[in-house]
Amino acid sequence: MATLTRLSKWVALARIDPGVEIDLSVPSVGKIRGARQTVRQGESVIMVGRGSGLVKGVVLEVHPDFIFTSFIARAGDGGAPVLSDTGELIGILYGADVTKSYVVPIEPILRELDMQLLTE
Questions:
Q1: Under a CB-based contact definition with an 8 Å cutoff, are residues 96 and 84 in contact?
Q2: Residue 26 CB coordination number (10 Å)
């Protein structure tokens, strides 16, 4: 089904075996349409989390290592995809406090791991 390769204490990759079918869509959203390289303050975003389900918000701040958003994630949402309103992957939810959520941008992760996001 899949082969797991541990790259470090914090990173592991799963390689899907040939012939295994995968669904590249996000529940309530549809297929991811690629990875967004730039994000701007005020841009609309959506997240589909295990605890929150589908939530919408806006980008509050953009920093090299984090994007802060207005939606407040719930327990269990960590690792959820955060997408632009056009379905491009912006990042992965890291956590939240009472005023904002913290999103790790996807592009630096893909670059560091020399990977490409599957969209088909």
A1: no
A2: 18
Give residues with Cβ within 8 angstroms of 70, minimum separation 6.
57, 58, 59, 60, 100, 101
Q: Are strands 12-16 and 25-26 parallel, antiparallel or unpaired?
A: unpaired
> Cβ-count burial of 39 within 10 angstroms (0-12 exposed, 13-18 middle, 19+ buried)?
buried
DSSP state of 35: B
Q: In 8-118, where do the E strands start and end? A: 12-16, 25-26, 30-31, 44-49, 53-62, 67-69, 81-84, 89-96, 101-105
Distance CA 16, CA 22 (A): 8
Contact 45, 84 (CB under 8 A): yes
Q: Give the pLDDT of the chain (120 residues) as one tens digit per residue.
A: 777 777 777 677 777 888 888 887 888 888 888 888 889 999 999 999 999 999 999 999 999 899 999 988 888 999 999 999 999 999 999 999 999 999 999 998 888 888 888 777
